[in-house]
Predict the structure.
Amino acid sequence: MAVSCYDALSRVYDRLNGNADYGGLADFIETCFEEYGSAGTRRVLDLGCGTGPLTAELAMLGYDVTGIDISDGMLAAAGERARALGLGNVSFEKADMRRFRAAKKFDAAVCTMDGINHLLSVADVTECFRAVRSALRTGGLFLFDVNTPFRFREVYGDNTFTIEEDDAVCVWRNRTDRKRCVTVFSVSVFEKTDGGLWTRRDGVTRERGYSLGTLKRALTEASLLPLAVFGDFDLTAPPEDAERWYLPARAV
């Protein structure tokens, strides 16, 4: 799993990703907790937490949240965010989401913003799901999202995307193997310094798309019961051209 891309992005990630609706995502997650989880959900694990925006939103809803990530840069930014918001009900740990071992049981776990897509084999996905199951108490809910195969083939493709702010620019250059549904993202981040000069940091990461059947089989093998598939925060079924799926599963 490549991490250099996100270390490169960590200082500007929030500015360049400012249109993400983390508040809406947190409300959606809470709705899923109420609809599919068990009573008394309080302790939540946030896998691939990044700079911690969702961790913070869930904490502000009253949950005790532990965020894990493999990127030192992302975790540093997440810690700064929590301190700035005065959040005492969050903690962060460096861990690989395929192999982490939780010291305590959680009531729920989430993995959003296509964290699962960064796992490049079915074996890795299943290993991650087993680690999640081990961290959850029986009856606990696991909710995750993924970029769909449609997005890899029809949106990512071999395209280049640019995100610009006044003092930061991010360029993503994609190369997609449509047969394997794997995209290589070559990322260049340009950031303006206080002295007016620009710095450049480069990184590479990869993502893979999985079919619903593959994801459901991996969940079942990990003793997680698939419950539904949504295409948006309104809990509706995904259309054929959905770019993202949301899947809740229960620990059995």
